[in-house]
Amino acid sequence: MAVLEETIDIAxxxxxHAGCEAALAAARMGLETVVFxxxxxxxxxxxxxxxxxxxxxxxxVKEIDALGGEMGKNIDKTFIQSKMLNQSKGPAVHSLRAQxxxxxxxQSMREVLENTDHLTIRQMEIAELIVExxxxxxxKAVSGAIYHCKAAVLCTGVYLNARCIYGDVSTxxxxxxxxxxxxxxxxxxxxxxxxxxxxxxxPARIDKRSIDFSKMEEQFGDERxxxxxxxxxxxxxxIDQESCWLTYTNEETHKIIRENLDRSPLYSGMxxxxxxxxxxxxxxxxxxxxxxxRHQVFLEPEGRYTNEMYVGxxxxxxxxxxxxxxxxxxxxxxxxxxxxxxxAIEYDCIDARQLKPSLEFRNISGLFSAGxxxxxxxxEEAAAQGLIAxxxxxxxxxxKESLVLDRSEAYIGVLIDDLVxxxxxxxxxxxxxxxxxxxLLRQDNADLRLTRHGYExxxxxxxxxxxxxxxxxxxxxxxxxxxxxxxxCKAIKEMLRVSRQEGEQEGRLEGxxxxxxxxxxxxxxxxxxxxxxxSTDRExxxxxxxxxxxx
Length: 551
What we know:
Elements: E1 5-7, E2 10-13, H1 17-28, E3 33-37, E4 51-53, H2 57-67, H3 71-78, E5 79-85, E6 95-100, H4 102-114, E7 119-123, E8 126-132, E9 135-141, E10 146-148, E11 151-154, E12 163-166, E13 169-171, H5 184-190, E14 195-202, E15 205-207, E16 217-219, E17 244-248, H6 251-259, H7 265-268, H8 282-288, E18 296-301, E19 308-312, H9 320-327, E20 338-340, E21 343-350, E22 367-369, H10 379-398, H11 411-421, H12 446-457, H13 462-482, H14 488-499, H15 518-528, H16 530-533, H17 538-547
Helix pairs in contact: 1-10, 2-10, 2-12, 3-4, 6-9, 12-13, 14-15
């Protein structure tokens, strides 16, 4: 029987946040790329929280942008509220977070993909990998169509053998009722890929008209908005913003949950996958933090032109009647009407230790993977991996060395290194505490750290690169003129070089014998970073230098 056969350079399987970045990177680098998706309407969909960024995740988005990715630009066009988090702490952990208009975000990203040269969107489920002697030579669709390719990037998200569950209801679908991908797992296993099963979840969506906001605390965006993308005009993001709202669970909420734990698939054994420790369901919170008499609940708009509100902090897989009862105990939600039930979703993914640092499979040449398929969680983590996988798939075809970022130069480097070298029994989430060099890896210097890499691979235009080079020169001139010739960056790097001793390994600065542990040295590093703020205060600077034995 005759089947469709096409020859392309790179196949990207999945068009979520990882797939979009992978496809755009490969196509922009000149490779003929096809991105496959089970639904064109789900491109860059946000099936869970309606925001981009947050603690450490904002750093990832800034780094994606500095390398030439799209996420930062897209959220700048479609956000409805923006807030800089952790402003009470040092600038190294300041993290930008923006509420997104979900539909607008997806539509805007789709428009970018549709108008990118060398990139084709194809609504089709990929069912099989074609591998010959350990080398990927193509992919096969459920229709039988064969796409001969030299590389492929797996960005399947939570769709592989996906199952959505709440109470006794179990449906074999992807998020939001979309079609699950039910064939590819068998092909992966046949080619020696080891699969695992993870789980995540999402809260209910509430009709805005049924909420009593007078019983909640209004949460405003920043008065002056900072854009995610270094290329976005700051004036273009000064817009009227939507409010979010804060309320809390209470003892009555927790009582209802405890009384119905036997009906929770999470505790009855119905759910097999492992969920994320740092994004627990409300059932998990009540059980594991029994001493807490309340938990935060954030009501967040899903967009400007919808009444759906996301109930942040109350993801659940409890039965429908229990969900309604527990939500109704929360101040402001006494008469809440559910638009979409909360549910858990479990899916197939891999142990990412099967990958090289380039995100290419060790045992299948030309096959790369990114995103939640690699055992991570979050839109930002997915997009970061997708960008690197797309770049490296393209560079493999170009006969060039892979781009591998070091832990010392990017949160993306930390993310990928952790995934491919450390065993993980749950979805991996990026956190500032995972980065040893976090005092240097600020979100506001991501362009200085990474634009050069983006330029070298071909994703950053000459004009933008020249601007960053000029910016770097001006900063060096200012430091030299204000610092009396003292190289503060060198001093801080020396401090961090010592503080980076891993685990229980000890190291000491001269004259600081009592400062032996990693945590103590990081505190010292945090304090020495004050030098940057005090460059014109020579007396204070010298005092600190003497204190740290660097005078």
